[in-house]
Amino acid sequence: MTRVAFIDDHESVRLGLEAACLRAEAMNVAFSGSTVTEYVQWRALSRHPPADVVVLDLTLGDGTTVTENVRRLVLDGSSVIIHSVADRPAAVREALAAGAAGVVSKSSPIGDVIAAVRTVSRGEPLNNVEWASAVEGDRAFADAQLSARERDVLRLYAAGLPLKVVADRLGVAYSTAKENITRIRVKYVEVGRPAPTKIDLLHRAVEDGILVEPSADPGDSTRGR
């Protein structure tokens, strides 16, 4: 059962989403309110676990910013979907950079919102038209912003070396190299450029100038994981 919370300062929007959620299979409305502070207070008093997915209005009327709202919810343990009007791409980019899992336009059918909740609750990236619009043409945002160590790990791994060899060459533990690859994949998902396989990582490395040309056969998608 997926536990969903709706945070929007327009009651009519919340009521519509709640009704759709109640009609959906294996989905339960855990909370509905107008601010993130209300939600956090409810969590503290009720001792309920965090919602699996929070559908959050991009701009609330309590003076909070989208960055602080998204970060509070993500740190609390929930995935966040931004429910936004389509004409504020900069604010949507800010929400995604803060850790939101995706965005759904308020002009979309309610069924699309429910489908997005299901997608995010499964841990899958929400790569839709709204996401693409938010990042299109913004290279600073689309950049996964890898650390120097992550770039070194990606350069060797994407070039075809097994992860153990990558770890040995960089003088780090295998577990550290593996953790770096995991973080790299997460960062690429967060900017809408998922790289689930080793071949995908090779493509991202070439696109970002980390690897100019493959120096070896990168192997299949399972080698060196």
Gist of the model:
Helices cover 51% and strands 12% of the residues.
Features:
alpha/beta, 51% helix
How would you describe the overall organization of this protein?
The structure is a single chain. This protein has about 220 residues and is of the alpha/beta class. About 50% of the residues lie in helices and about 10% in strands. The protein contains 11 helices and 5 strands. It has helices spanning about 10-25, 35-45, 65-75, 90-100, 110-120, 130-135, 140, 150-160, 165-170, 175-190, 200-205, and strands spanning about 1-5, 25-35, 55, 80-85, 100-105. A 5-stranded parallel sheet has the order 2-1-3-4-5, sandwiched between helices. Helix 3 runs parallel beside helix 4 and helix 8 packs across helix 9. Keywords: DNA-binding, Phosphoprotein. InterPro entries: CheY-like_superfamily, Sig_transdc_resp-reg_C-effctor, Sig_transdc_resp-reg_receiver, Tscrpt_reg_LuxR_C, WalR-like. This is Response regulator transcription factor.
**What is the strand tally?**
5
Enumerate the spans where pLDDT stays under 50 for 5 or more consecutive residues.
Answer: 214-225
Shape from CA axes? Answer: elongated
Strand content: 5-15%
Write the layout of secondary structure elements.
Elements: E1 2-7, H1 11-23, E2 27-33, H2 36-46, E3 53-57, H3 66-76, E4 79-84, H4 89-98, E5 102-105, H5 110-121, H6 129-135, H7 139-142, H8 148-158, H9 163-170, H10 174-190, H11 198-207
Parallel strand pairs: 1-2, 1-3, 3-4, 4-5
